[in-house]
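Re: How this chain folds, sequence and tokenised backbone to follow

Filed under: protein folding, tokenised backbone structure, sequence and structure records.

Contents: The amino acid chain and a row of whole-number tokens, matched residue for residue.

Body of memo: The sequence and its backbone structure tokens, given next.
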Amino acid sequence: MKLDLSFDDAEDYLLVRVKGDWTREGVMAGIRDAAQRAQEVGQTRILLDIRELSAPKADMDRFMAGESIAKVFPFPCKVVAVRSADLIDKFAENVAVNRGAKAIVLSDINEAVRWLTKDPTQ
């Protein structure tokens, strides 16, 4: 099942809003679509708003999402996913980071924007 993705090319980052039911195929396609859009607009900072994406049914789905994030958003990309606090377990984040991604999952969108746009020298 295909997810509903919308893009907003903000000045400092690409905002990707994701809605729908989590399926492995849908999430993998959504990650690829987001990466393609980021490349098209020349953006290396990506904010994935997944608050309207249902929870995955299995840990393997989280694992594969983290692995895919690391693969399609290599350094110097920075990726932050915003999720409802009760659905965050950091598994996908850990998988992505362990594979070299600069990624984090947060529940507060303002904190996510600050993390994403923070000067790396600070």
